[in-house]
Amino acid sequence: MTTLPVLGLGLSSNAQTADFPRPYALLDAQPGLYDYVEYSAPLDIDVARAEATLFPEMEKRRADVPLVYHPVHINLWGPELEDAERLAACAAHVEAVGSPWVSNDVGWWHHRGQALPGYLYLSPPLSAEGVEQCVAHAVHVKNAMPVPMLLENPTVMTARGALHVLDFMEKLSTASACDVLLDVGHLFSHQLARGLSLTEGLDSFPWERVRQLHIAGGVVKGQTYLDDHPQPIRDEVWALFADVLKRCSRLCAVTYEGDGHPDVVAVANLKKLRGLHLPSPRALAEGQARAPELPSTALTATGVWALLDQTLREPSPELDFRLTVLAEALDREVPISRRAVAPSADQLRHYPLREWLEHGARPLADHFLAWAMKESRRPELAGADALVSLELWARTTHARAQRATPGPVDATFPMNLTEALHAFHALSRHDAGWDGLLQCARRATPGPWRLRLSARGASVHIDPLA
């Protein structure tokens, strides 16, 4: 049985200084508010140091505030075993920050480095076959890590397979010789999806295998719990957490995943957790036995892709959530084109997400623009082609200019879409104005139309010049 250091209460972070809550500001204002930081960041430590703006402070203070790496870039299910180079990068990252263990949700996060939109992973079927497939992944990843690995129970937006999620995790834990990180919200999602009471099916689980707990926000839609951290923590999750906490005899850590919560809410939740008799930090020895690799025949790539197809085809709260996340990802880069050709979930579901994930080497926004250009030629989308052309031109023109002189770019587009651009911005008030947007695009007159193009986050902002 694995022994690990007892860390106590932790706060999660996406390692960006602009994000809330602000872990170190909270700790400076209230010493002892929490004990460690659990974070997600790119696998490559040099990339993490360059892109994660909080990383310098994290490394500077890790002697007093330990770091636990929770990489959401590692597959613990999916059509292929994780690439050796990615595992080596993860292992080096873990050693560089002194993380005492590494963990991740059991699911399919990415395909050959291309993450599912919003890192909204696909959960495995809760079946004997699903266990077998996940064991192959877990053992493969575990054996590449320099520290013990904890397996996190997946969120269950749609119940697939006959096993209770805790029975699934027990079998997976036993076969892979890995202990468990139990996410209480994910457990609630399973109970809700199955129509079970909060504690039904919990008594037979070997709770001594749970070494860490997660608690986070989410929303309920019918019989589906959507794991969405910026949302408040629900009463049902607090109640289940209190029950689970009493069952865990060898608990080492509890992480409050407060991503997106304002500082004042984070402080209140951390103080509430402190009052629930969590384990106190102390040092213990650590170790985990190497497990034998399983043959790759345990993986059934066809079945994994088929489950993705089914998820993207059949109406469900899970599909609604995935389409919402996809729209948010696209709106950060190509908001005009997304609103022009796929303003609703029903229209966006026709986007060939699998094609992009399985075959495309291009970024999501570029692949979507190519699809949107074809889609915009449909008669019922007349006018959309001008809007997609505008955004494609703006991105290309701006990117080309940045190679020579970084900064805003003045350029001329051959069609005057002033009214249509106004109609696009007005959609923030009334989504029902979509047909008006296309009407304005159809009324556009030949240019020249003078514009200023500037970076705004990952998108190119378009401003007409007088």
From TrEMBL:
Q: Name one Pfam family in it.
A: MbnB_TglH_ChrH
Stretches of the chain forming a coiled coil according to its record: none
Q: Which InterPro entries match?
A: MbnB/TglH/ChrH, Xyl_isomerase-like_sf
Please give the PANTHER family that the UniProt record associates with this protein: UPF0276 PROTEIN HI_1600
Q: What is this protein called?
A: DUF692 family protein
